[in-house]
Amino acid sequence: METGSPADAGTTGTEPGWTGLPPGLLRMRRLLLVVWLGLTALAVALLLGLLAGPVWAAFALLPLAALAWGWVLLGRNWRSWRYAERADDLLISRGVLWHEETVVPYGRMQLVEVTSGPVERHFGLASVQLHTAAAATDATIPGLEPAEAERLRDRLTELGEARSAGL
Q1: 140-147 long-range CB contacts below 8 Å, 24 or more apart?
Q2: How crowded is residue 15: how many other Cβ atoms within 10 Å of its Cβ?
Q3: Pairing of strands 19-20, 82-85
Q4: In 52-145, where does DSSP find H-type helix?
Q5: Are 83 and 141 a contacting pair, CB within 8 Å?
Q6: Residues with Cβ < 8 Å from 121, sequence gap 6 or more?
Q7: In the Cβ-directed half-sphere of 21, how many Cα atoms lie within 13 Å?
Q8: Neighbouring-strand partners of residue 100
Q9: What are the residues facing 140 on neighbouring strands?
Q10: N or C: which end of the chain has fewer CB within 10 A?
C-alpha cells in the first residue's frame, strides 16, 4: 500500500507521500487471531460437549463468529495505518472509525527506538517508537520490516539532531 517513497514525502503539492505498513503485520495479527479464537472455540466445544451435552457445544460458534468479524476488522485497521516523512515533521495516520493523525516535529524528538518482541521477530517485523518532550505526541509505527525501521530511526535521529541544534 505504498503510495510514495519516503524520499519524495512532502515534495509534491500539499499531499504528503504516504507509506503504508507491510503485509507481514496483517499476516501476523490474523494468525494470532486464528490461534487464540480457534483454540477458544475448540475448548468451548469440548468442555460444553462433554459436560453439558452436544447441543451446548454449539456455543463454540460464538468464538468462530468473533474470528470472522476480527478478520475483517484487522484488515481495515491495517489499511488505515500510514506514515509520511515531510520536511519538518513526521505524520502518522491511523484509525477506521476514529481517525487519528499525529504530527511529530523532528526538533521535538528526544528518542527514537526500534523494538521487536519474539512474535514480531519471528515474522521479521519491528516497531519504531518516537519519544518527544511532550508525552502526548509520543508515537509508534508498528510492523515495519527491520531494515526500514532502522533506516527510519537513523533518518529521524539525524533530522531531530539537526532541527534541535538550530533552535
Answers
A1: 141/21, 141/81, 141/83, 141/92, 142/21, 142/25, 142/81, 143/21, 143/22, 143/24, 143/25, 143/28, 143/81, 144/21, 144/22, 145/22, 145/24, 146/114, 146/116
A2: 11
A3: antiparallel
A4: 61-80, 118-122
A5: yes
A6: none
A7: 28
A8: 94
A9: 129
A10: C
Residue 167 confidence (pLDDT): 52
Report the 3 state secondary structure along 60-80: HHHHHHHHHHHHHHHHHHHHH
In the structure grid, which three cell numbers stand for residue 34, read together?
A: 486464528
Whole-prediction pTM: 0.80
Cell of 5: 517513497
Q: Which three cell numbers stand for residue 119?
A: 512474535
Identify the helix (H) or strand (E) that includes residue 115: strand 109-115
